[in-house]
């Protein structure tokens, strides 16, 4: 366990939103201890801030989005995965539009930017949430569960009736080095028929073979091929790391997911926070651990429908 970390200097990147297709620039800036990850609206003069926490989650199947304080940010999961994967605890993310740029569909562009400036170790300890008893959520055949473990681990299983995927199982021992080496480069994927259906609904406007592995009936459309033979399940691990960071602090436990997706990932986060008898906080500054347990969920938050823009 370590102290909190932030970026050593600001970093910026620009691209288009996967769903909106609109240009957007994000700037990640160093932030003081106990800030967490906070989005800042730089579309116009508002300057409003929105913490990346589960209480601001907007229900959506296609991506992870948060809404509050007069703005929303969609498709936050890949940049959150990069921050969580590398151990960036405190950061402001200025956004000029309502969706994080998709870049190449993976987390590696964000990882390279973060590594280009490096991290600063801060003066406060970083608390960890250690799971003491299993917690599970399921929806039909989809399920995600967290069990006690001495180290953070993720095991993901996916099943698709497609010759390039079939059944893929992957276990990730969480560390900055393994995240960068094994997970960060895995790209978003989608089936051609799904992609066409999304376009028909006005979504996925920024999707292309530059940022999505598109599966045809028997293969993939991308001429450059796959980055890993099991890139699909690795991307699911990436998404889970990003979604799970809405917990607000690193976890110690074994996350086990099968056929899952954003909605179920975030439901598990909610369930964990609603069952404080099943976890403890480690590495806190003082004996005030109990006070952190009143964090971050608010059931009174009304669900706001995601507006496609
Ligand atoms: Zn993803």
From TrEMBL:
InterPro entries: Ribosomal_Su5_D2-typ_SF, UDP-acyl_GlcNac_deAcase, UDP-acyl_GlcNac_deAcase_C, UDP-acyl_N-AcGlcN_deAcase_N
Lineage: Bacteria, Pseudomonadati, Nitrospirota, Nitrospiria, Nitrospirales
HAMAP family: LpxC
Residues covered by region (Disordered): 289-309
Known function: Catalyzes the hydrolysis of UDP-3-O-myristoyl-N-acetylglucosamine to form UDP-3-O-myristoylglucosamine and acetate, the committed step in lipid A biosynthesis.
Similarity remark: Belongs to the LpxC family.
GO biological process assignments: lipid A biosynthetic process
GO cellular component: membrane
Class of this enzyme: hydrolase
Signal peptide residue numbers: none
Required cofactor(s): Zn(2+)
One Gene Ontology MF term: metal ion binding
Keyword Heme among record annotations: no
Keywords: Hydrolase, Lipid A biosynthesis, Lipid biosynthesis, Lipid metabolism, Metal-binding, Zinc
Record: residues binding Zn(2+): 78, 235, 239
Catalytic activity: a UDP-3-O-[(3R)-3-hydroxyacyl]-N-acetyl-alpha-D-glucosamine + H2O = a UDP-3-O-[(3R)-3-hydroxyacyl]-alpha-D-glucosamine + acetate
Protein biosynthesis keyword on record: no
Residue numbers annotated as active site: 262 (proton donor)
Pathway assignment: Glycolipid biosynthesis; lipid IV(A) biosynthesis; lipid IV(A) from (3R)-3-hydroxytetradecanoyl-[acyl-carrier-protein] and UDP-N-acetyl-alpha-D-glucosamine: step 2/6
EC number(s) given by UniProt: 3.5.1.108
Protein name: UDP-3-O-acyl-N-acetylglucosamine deacetylase
SUPFAM superfamilies according to UniProt: Ribosomal protein S5 domain 2-like (SSF54211)
């Amino acid at each position: 366990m370590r102290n909190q970390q932030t970026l050593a200097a600001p970093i910026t990147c620009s691209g288009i939103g996967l769903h909106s297709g609109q240009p957007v620039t994000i700037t990640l800036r160093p932030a003081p201890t106990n800030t967490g990850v906070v989005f800042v609206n730089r579309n116009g003069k508002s300057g409003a801030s929105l913490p990346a926490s589960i209480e601001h989650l907007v229900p959506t199947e296609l991506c992870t989005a948060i809404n509050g304080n007069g703005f929303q940010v969609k498709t936050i999961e890949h940049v959150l995965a990069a921050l969580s994967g590398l151990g960036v605890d405190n950061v402001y993310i200025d956004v000029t539009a309502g969706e994080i740029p998709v870049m190449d569909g993976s987390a590696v562009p964000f990882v390279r930017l973060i590594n280009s400036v490096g991290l600063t170790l801060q003066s406060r300890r970083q608390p960890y949430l250690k799971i003491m008893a299993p917690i599970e959520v399921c929806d039909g055949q989809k399920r995600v569960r967290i069990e006690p473990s001495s180290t953070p681990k993720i095991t993901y299983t996916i099943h698709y009736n497609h010759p390039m995927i079939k059944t893929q199982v992957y276990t990730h021992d969480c560390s900055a080095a393994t995240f960068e080496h094994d997970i960060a480069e895995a790209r978003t994927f989608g089936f051609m028929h799904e992609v066409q259906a999304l376009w028909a609904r006005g979504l996925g406007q920024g999707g292309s073979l530059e940022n999505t592995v598109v599966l045809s009936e028997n293969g993939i459309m991308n001429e450059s091929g796959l980055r890993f033979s099991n890139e699909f399940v690795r991307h699911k691990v990436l998404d889970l790391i990003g979604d799970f960071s809405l917990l607000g602090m690193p976890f110690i436990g074994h996350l086990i997911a099968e056929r899952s997706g954003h909605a179920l990932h975030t439901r598990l986060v909610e369930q964990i926070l609603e069952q404080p008898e099943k976890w403890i906080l480690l590495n806190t500054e003082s004996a005030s651990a109990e006070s952190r347990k009143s964090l971050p969920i608010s059931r009174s938050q009304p669900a706001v429908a995601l507006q496609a823009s």
